[in-house]
Amino acid sequence: MEVLTELIELISRNFFWFAILVIVVVAVVVSAIKDVLRTKAREASRREIAAYIAEGSMTPEQGERLMVAENSSDRC
Question: Is the Cβ–Cβ distance between 52 and 63 less than 8 Å?
């Protein structure tokens, strides 16, 4: 219990820096989650394009153009 009281006192004395630390940590976590979701969506799109090519409803050239267009839209 004493440790908790000391921690609360430390945070209250340095509240500004603690708030900055919390904001930075949250921003890093949100950014990491966003990157993971973007990568997951990109890989799902690539698998779908590969499936269309495999079943013959799309040519490999069309699939390549889609993948190139997808990569260039990620940079915007």
Answer: yes
